[in-house]
From TrEMBL:
The organism of origin for this protein: Cyclonatronum proteinivorum
Keywords carried by this UniProt record: Hydrolase, Metal-binding, Pyrimidine biosynthesis, Zinc
Coiled-coil ranges per UniProt: none
Gene name in the database record: pyrC
Principal EC category: hydrolase
PANTHER family linked: ALLANTOINASE
Upper classification of the organism: Bacteria, Pseudomonadati, Balneolota, Balneolia, Balneolales
Name this polypeptide is given: Dihydroorotase
Enzymatic reactions: (S)-dihydroorotate + H2O = N-carbamoyl-L-aspartate + H(+)
HAMAP family tied to this protein: PyrC_classI_B (MF_00220_B)
Length: 432
């Protein structure tokens, strides 16, 4: 519903640069969808919707740069609308959607379909186009045409760009277009038929494992190609300690490499599969790895090696997940639970400060994708997330906004909540 005029009262303004002094400013006014002013105890006007933040934080809107919305072609798992509803409930005002749809996002018409389908939604949707036609890894997709249609990056996510020559050519073209290539880092010959992380737990369970080296070999290759071409490689959903170390070393050399991490990879380990008796909601790719890898993800976020926090939100139907572990598809939901995991592992532990975390959720994703970063400045379009770090809530089937429900956090009581988003002149409160 359109709400062009809103007054947020009793809020703490926060962004990547810090938290404003609540004794000086605790209110923000929106007029005609733009930030009109910030101040202390502003007086409501007759035509304004007043939102009492009750001490919650108000920041520029968060972005998840790695989600799977499944539309077109796989609408039984998720649609653009249901995925964006889940995103709004999780505090995200923008998402970038991966191209493993049917048909894939490998041409301008599919890019424009997604852009047009999402144009009126309060959550902005930015399509990521394929590197290769049909994601088949053989022929380069129409990269320039897709950018003209609204694509913000290129990836064959779900599968790696396996051919090194094709990846080199893609980086050359993407460099001319000033866009990143996002790669799912996996050496398929080393990883398949792995169903979880290769290690002590997989050995005990008798499951074929995916070793860390399968991810690290491809990260090393892509760093070298980025150095050669001058292109921008973005490492998708990093999960291993050595992978983080290689990105850290590459950045120190000035190589154009960035990376992201999912909340489940800095929260859960491969031991969850054993503890849960093969619950397929713990099956994902990259797989859950060791406690040492989890620690490395947190270290990488804290020192800035890892740029962004994303969810890799990957909906699957109940029928697909309720099978034997080896037959279940990889992937879990993440949009609604991401913030609570961040609070648990990064803020409550003191490993990161709120402004550091907000940089990973607001500034970094958009900077990587060459998108404008929203601010709290007067005159700017109002693109905002209202949230706290203390509220308890239960993530349940009833509160789940996705069309699917494949989450290891289902039925858990979580801490930290997004109370709503404001974007595109629409206020969307979180009703859970």
């Amino acid at each position: 519903m359109s709400q062009p005029n809103v007054l947020f009262l009793n809020v703490q303004l926060a962004d990547a640069f810090g938290i404003r002094d609540a004794q000086t400013v605790n209110a923000l006014r929106i007029r005609e969808g733009k930030i009109a002013e910030t101040g202390l105890n502003l007086t409501p006007e007759a035509d304004e919707l007043v939102v009492d933040g009750k001490g919650a934080f108000l920041s520029p809107g968060w972005m998840d740069m790695h989600v799977h919305l499944r539309e077109p072609g796989l609408e039984h798992k998720e649609t653009i609308k249901t995925g964006c509803t889940a995103a709004a409930a999780g505090g995200f005002t923008a998402v970038a959607c991966m191209p493993n749809t049917l048909p894939p996002i490998h041409s301008r018409d599919v890019v424009e379909y997604i852009v047009n389908k999402s144009a009126a939604l309060p959550v902005e949707v930015y399509p990521i186009g394929c590197v290769s036609k049909d994601r088949a890894g053989k022929h380069l997709a129409e990269m320039g045409d897709m950018k003209a249609g609204g694509a913000v990056a290129f990836s064959d996510d779900g599968d790696p760009v396996y051919n090194a020559k094709l990846m080199r050519t893609a980086l050359d073209y993407a460099t001319m277009l000033d866009m990143p290539v996002i790669n799912h880092e996996e050496d398929l010959d080393l990883s398949r038929p792995g169903h979880m992380h290769e290690g002590r737990v997989s050995t005990r369970l008798g499951l074929a494992g995916t070793p860390s080296i399968a991810e690290e070999v491809m990260i090393a290759r892509d760093i070298l190609l980025a150095e050669l071409t001058g292109g921008h490689v973005h490492v998708a959903h990093i999960s291993t300690r050595r992978g983080v170390e290689m990105v850290r070393e590459a950045k120190a050399k000035g190589i154009k490499v960035t990376t992201e991490v999912c909340p489940h990879h800095f929260d859960l380990t491969d031991e969850e599969i054993e503890r849960s008796a093969f619950d397929t909601n713990y099956k994902m790719h990259p797989p859950l790895r060791t406690a040492d890898d989890v620690e490395a993800m947190i270290e990488g976020l804290a020192d800035g090696t890892i740029d962004a926090i994303c969810t890799d939100h990957a909906p699957h139907s109940v029928e697909e997940k309720e099978v034997e572990f080896i037959y279940a598809p990889n992937g879990i939901l993440g949009l609604q639970t991401a913030w609570s995991v961040v609070v648990k592992q990064l803020l409550d532990t003191g490993r990161m400060k709120l402004p550091q975390v907000l940089r990973c959720l607001i500034d970094a994703p958009r900077t990587i994708l060459r998108l404008p970063v929203p601010t709290l400045e007067a005159g700017q379009p109002a693109n905002l997330t209202l949230f706290d770090t203390t509220s308890s809530w239960t993530y349940s089937v009833a509160s789940n906004k996705s069309k699917s429900r494949n989450s290891p956090y289902l039925d858990q009581t979580l801490k930290g909540k997004a109370h709503g988003i404001y974007n595109r002149a629409q206020w969307v409160p979180n009703d859970i």
